[in-house]
Structure formats: C-alpha cells, structure tokens
Amino acid sequence: MTRVLITGASGFIGSHLARACLVRGDEVAVLTRPGSSLDRLQGASGIRVFTDGYSDVAAIKRVANAFRPQVVLHTAAQTKFAETDDLADLNASILQNLSTLVAILSALAICDQPPDAFVRTGSIAEYGDIKLPYVETSRENPRNSYGASLVAGTQYIEMAQPRLPFKAVTARLALTYGPGQSEDFFIPHAIGRLLRKAPVFLHRPHDRRDLIHIDDIVEALLLIADAPDKAGSVINVVTGDAPDMAAVARELQVLTGAAPDMVSSAPPKYDPILLVSDPSQMAERYGWSAKIALREGLERTVQWTKQSQQAEMNA
Asked: Which residue ranges does the record assign to the NAD-dependent epimerase/dehydratase domain (predicted)?
C-alpha cells in the first residue's frame, strides 16, 4: 500500500487518479482549494480530504506531516486564461500555476518526511509553435499564458531538482478526454449538445490534436509514480496521432445518433494548428503505449454521458 496525495482531485484527471489509486489498494488523500466541489469523488469512500489550498507553505507542510505521502500527484492547474490588453492573464497564470507549484514543492521539501516521488501533470501546450513532432528535449515556444506558465513550472522543477529530497517529474499530457470531463472542453461539449439535439459549430475544423483517453493517462501516471527515476525530468504521455477535429466531430455525430446537419464548421480563416508529440520515451522506458483507440474512447464517453443525462432526468 502506497500513501498517495493528489492535488486537484476535485477536477477531471485528479478524480480519476484518486479512484484508480483506491482500486489498487493505496491509501489516498486529496488536497483541494477551500470550497472546491467534491462531486467527482462521490461514492469513493476512504479518501482523506484536506482543504488547505495550494498557496500557504505552512498549511501544505502541515498536510504533508499529517499524511506523510510517499507519492504526490500534482494535477491542480488552471487551463484557460482570457487574453487582455493589460496582460492580466500573464499575472493570473503565474499565480494560479507557477506560484502554487513552488509553494507545494517548498512545503514538501521541508516537511518531516518528504515523499519519494512528485509527478506533475504538464501539457503538450508547453511546446507551442515549434518543429513537429514534439520531443522532450525541444526548446519550447508556448502560444499562450497557460503554456508559458507550465513551461516555467517545468524549468523551475528542473532547476530545483538538486535541492529537492525527492524525484520530480513533469508528464506532458496530450489533450485528455473521457467520462466526467467538463463541457468547457470540445469533446464533452460536442457530445452533450448532440445528445440534447443541439447543433455543434467548429470554428477551427482542420486543427489536428493528439487526443488521449483518461484511462490511458491514469495508467501512465501511476507507472511514472512507481518508478520516477526512469522518466527523466520531462516525459510525454501521448498517442503520437493527431486526428482532424472535423473528423472527430463527424464520429461523434454518428455515435450520438445525431443528424448529419447538426455539425457544421466555419470556412478556414487560419492555418490549421497541429499538436502531435513523440510517444517513444514512454514506450522505451516503461513499455507503455496508449491502448484505447479514439473511436472506442469516444464511444465510452458517449455512453457515460447518456447515462449521466438519464440519471439527471430521473432525479
């Protein structure tokens, strides 16, 4: 049994990780911001909950001393920052994603019994506008505040690693989807609307994005947490494929049983964005590759959404 502390467990990836750790017999605690909803953890009994947030080093240290985690999975991050003329999004991304990371690292470094491993979820958004496919040694050129704040966090971890009493790894994830994800993201947004017989409009239909199912992400993150020294400081957790978003939307239209005219798109105004990364390091170091094909993953997500909508109607 491993003692696992998960930040961001009220969110999509963190909640799936918490449930998976319980299933494999780990002792699980979650650290959330005060007032965070724990709806995603309903029915997951045996989880110890701390609501001390991510900014107070002393409070986080008290959590670490109380629980004594052997593994910390840091999934807490804000993914969207509206760009403003006064550049307020830059400061917000630093406060939400970088300052909190540094506070957690600081607390873990000085707690009574530091963990063995710290695994942080980064993103392929860190790479940005560079040569494809993205490889871990690439010089990043992020396109937005979110990507820049994550790159800064990655580099802070690498800089601080000689001073940390635990191994720290950034796992750069492909665009993750699956049951329980917010409709703020494209796949659950499209599924929800199509099942409600509402139209879906694609503003950038020919962008190509590496999409990965949450179950594959969870499996990979736990492999890294169990043997962090294999990973290096940064490792991609990706499929290596990048389907066209218009093709994904058409697949969802078929899987939901929606009429073909429920999906439409704008004429291309911009060059398509291609997000595809090299998966070879996870394969070589852990023998891991994504197992859930896109159609299967989309079908699972559609079925979960149907059941969720039906449960809401019956409530």
From this structure: 4-237
